[in-house]
Fold:
Amino acid sequence: MMTNEERLHKTIRFERTDKILSGPSIAQFAATYAGITQKEFADYPLKAEEAYEKTFTELGGWDVGRPFIGGRPGAGRGSGPAGFAMGTMRPGRELADNSVVQFIEREIMVPEDYDFVIENGYNALQKRLSERANPPSLNTPSQSPEEQKRAVERDTERIKANTAKWDARGVVRLSSGNLALPPFDFFSIHRSVAKFPMDIRRMPDKVKAATKACMPDIIANAKKSAETSGCRRVGTASSRSSSTFISNKQFEEFVLPTWLEFVWAMADADLDIIFHCDCDWTRFLPYFKEFPAKRCVLQLDGASDIFKAKEILEDHMALHGDVPAPLLTLGTPEEVYAYCKKLIEVIGEGGGFILSSGCSTPSNAKIGNVRAMVRAGNELTWV
Structure:
């Protein structure tokens, strides 16, 4: 019998396997299932891990996808997820205890920062924006240096123990942990959705030069993450480069060149690539045939037409998804199971498919519906 690591490697390459993999993205839903608040889930890593463990075990388990076992999202004041300098509103602080983290759209990057990144690179810009968004007065540590050091050591040991536990279970990591954004997305997030569209009209050449200047650091960061983690798959994520936000012409000018550079650099380093694509990408699907064949996985979140993706991409790129959030929150277990069956039969035909939720399982999904999705992944996927 194959291991899940072997199955994933073969799935990406459209080689024959004994099972279609399943891997629903379970994050904040685990808090709902375990009966703890989103505040507890966000602020207390041990409680979050216990909640994920309970959800995994009692729902029946899956093949791909581990809990987020590093620092919790939104733990630092004014900080967003890794790589973002976005502000957040957090459960139990700015929001009610059982709300999920909300990100604040605001202008952090200014036009002069384009010249800065052209001169200094992506990592320097990321540091500058993080410091701008999180001035020291907001992040003064309450612990002494020694206490902070001991806390880091405890966290490192906890992460090692969790990694060993999920290794022993055979549940594989989809990617190394580093999530590379196209520079276009990074700029849009930090300039804001109101300001950035004006930049690409008023100073398109400057924006293009800045996107190009980001690439050496972004490529090096991804390679380092793969080397450190031991996982031979790297992630790249986008939403604001999608057809929800921009035209084909803008995609070709501002996004595709740097994305091609990144993905081909990963493939040349013998790394597979996981695309996490939120929003609607249906109109842009033909562009994905320009990426390396049988080296990529395209994760779709329910907004794109996954059946159209199968029709266009055929055996060029594996697909991952895409039980939609509305179905998990508003549908019935019978409807969820039937949709999973359709995905397995249609998208899974010929291989290159991983059954999953469309992006993350909503915190307010019906437990019976999530159970039906996991059950389908365990009952219907053996070849």
The chain has one domain: 4-138+172-379. The longest strand covers residues 233-238.
